[in-house]
Every structure is written in C-alpha cells, then in structure tokens.
Prior knowledge:
Layout: H1 22-36, H2 43-57, E1 64-68, H3 74-82, E2 87-92, H4 95-105, E3 111-115, E4 133-139, H5 147-160, E5 161-172, H6 181-199, H7 207-214, H8 221-229, H9 244-253, E6 258-265, E7 268-274
Parallel strand pairs: 1-2, 1-4, 2-3, 4-5
Antiparallel strand pairs: 5-7, 6-7
Helix pairs in contact: 1-4, 5-9
Amino acid sequence: MPSTPPVPSTPSAPSAGISADRRTALHWVERWDRQQEEFLPEREALFDVLIDVVQESAEGPAPLVVDLGCGLGSIGARLLQRVPDATVVSVDADPVLIALGRAAYGDLRGLRFVPADLRRPGWVAELGLDRPADAVVSSTALHWLAPSVLTSVYTAAAGLLRPGGVLVNCDELERDQDAVPVLARLDRALLTREKARRLGADHGEGWYDWWEQILAEPALAPAVAERNRQGYAGEHHSDLSPGIEVHRTALREAGFEEVGTLWQRGEVQLLCAVTASPDGPSMALPRHTHNNAPAPRP
C-alpha cells in the first residue's frame, strides 16, 4: 500500500496550535490516508492522474496550484514530489487539519497552508497570490458545499486561474438517479466492488473513528479548542452537492469554457474544467489513429 510522502528530515519547531513533533503528526497523516481510501479506494492512482493534468496543462516547470479543502495537504505533498519547483497554496477551514498539515509538511519548500472557509466571502484575498494560478485542485471536499455556495466557489476559482488554466476536482459524484437509474446503480456497484477488492471485509479505521481519536490527541488540544471556538465542533460535513450535474452546471455558470470527466470508476470521477483563452487551446491534439498506425497524409 502506498506510503505517506516523505518529508525533509531536518528538525523544526512545532507549528502554531500543535505541540506534537513531526513523527506524531505523520502517524496521524498515515491514518488519515488510510481512512480516506474508504471513500477513494484508488486514491493514489487518482492523485497521479490529477498531477498529470497539472503538469500537462502548466505553462512551465513551476506552476502555481491552489488546493481547496486541502485537509492535511495530501495533494500538495505528492505534487511537490513530482514537480519540486511548483508552489502549492493549500486552503482549509479546520484548525485541526491545518495544524497537522503544517506539522507534517511545513518544511516542504513550495507548500503553504492558508486557514480559510470557502463558505465565507473574502477567502480569495487571504490566499496572498502574486500571480494567476495555473491550476485549482480539490479532492473529496467540495461535495459538502451547498449548490449556491459551490457556484460561488467555482466562480472565485475561475477568477484565480490564468487563461487556459484548469480546475480539477476528484470526488464521489453521483448521476441523476431519476434520469438514469440503471447507470446510477451500476456506478455505486462498481465502487462497492472496488472497495471490497482493495480493502477486504475489514475496512479498518473510518472517517468518524479517525475524528473521534484525533480530537482526543493531547498534542492537538490547542487546535481542537480553536476548532470549537470557531464553531466546527461536531461538524463533519454533509453531502449537499453530491450530484455530478450540480457540479457541471455550477462550473458552466462560473464561466468555464470546457467541462468534462477525465477519469472515472463508478461514482468516483476526476472532473476537469478549463478557463477560456483568447489564443485558443494551448495544447494541440496530435493526429493519430486508434490502432497506432501512421496518420494519413493530408
């Protein structure tokens, strides 16, 4: 099973809000990665595809990437392994997740955590970006936004991106069960079967189990207190926007020029949207044939 990405071995002072050392933080990060596979059994492969998209669409070797609902910074840590000159601005509202991410990955060059709530106006200004982003990414986070808020977040994300920039969202996104009931059932069945193959009968620690344990971690007491003060106590997010068409509609209303799925197994999708570019598409599609034979001469 894939391991948590390595971090620099140099010692550092504890992050604000957490008194644990990096080893303790990485222990919780490892447990986070495993419980996240309850939702995305092919999570590591999906992250590979997401990073491929960022690399393929970037205009240079040092892209600026914004990670919405970053959790512990899982995407940023993996992206910087493959694209070490990138800058990743990781955004999350939860003080506990931000504290753990900073403690585990705080010394990674190019990774910066920003505490901000996507549901509240003004979060874009808190990012402190000095140029348009090449990509906005997210994983298993945006489904908990209400549809109206989701549209606002996608609109703000479109404003962050350069012309021709991409938004990539990896999540469980359902088809309309009334419109296509058989396909919706097959989507759920495919995901269930993949989970059974990869995880077996004993799925180990789940989402709620992880949260119950992490909130009792003594080293995180200050971050937990701040979480309670901000009103996140007991809030573990709801499926307010689980449908794929909700996201497609919101992205189109946000002004993205192209919207489509790049990867899918059952309900799990890698949804991609592209901002308009006055110069047209930046990536020309090479001519080819499906059997790999030479393309006919013009």
